[in-house]
Design goal:
three-stranded mixed beta sheet; mainly beta; about 40% strand
Length: about 160
């Protein structure tokens, strides 16, 4: 007696594979709207006292992290130069932000305070609010739109 041979046919098909070039192109096209919608913030700093140390700028989108540099979305540091300086923060999504800047004259990467509350180094905030006590996010917040945005911050010593 002959054994019946059964043919098993695979009814599942292998997933189609894109050529790598087509896949990369699709990824690039997919991120185009993210790139096009991102904002660039130019921050004009006025009244930098001297050339000592660094200028440090941090940007925040969360009121809870405001003024806590380690929780900033971005931190930019550049050599101090007396007078006016422009710095750039790129790749930001449209939204509500606040910026804090300080003149880190002694290069210790922190805003030095007297009695734990009075800045001994120059500092400034977006919207240039007059503050009594710790500055609030709401006083410094502004709306960033897609494309290039500009703000001016006056450094107070």
């Amino acid at each position: 007696m002959k054994q019946a041979q059964m043919k098993i046919r695979n009814t599942t098909t292998a997933p189609s594979r894109w050529p790598i070039g087509a896949f990369l192109l699709a990824c690039l096209l997919g991120t185009g709207s993210v790139i096009a919608d991102s904002g660039k913030l130019l921050v004009e700093l006025e009244n930098v006292r001297d050339d000592s140390g660094q200028i440090r700028a941090s940007i925040y989108s969360d009121p809870e992290s405001f003024r806590k540099e380690e929780k900033a979305l971005k931190v930019v540091s550049l050599p101090a130069r007396a007078g006016n300086i422009t710095l750039s923060l790129d790749g930001l999504a449209p939204g509500r932000y606040a910026v804090m800047v300080y003149h880190d004259a002694n290069n210790d990467q922190k805003l030095n305070l007297r009695f734990g509350m009075f800045p001994t180094e120059g500092y400034g905030l977006s919207n240039n609010p007059v503050v009594m006590g710790p500055p609030k996010f709401s006083e410094s917040a502004f709306d960033l739109k897609p494309g290039e945005n500009r703000i001016t911050i006056k450094i107070a010593y």
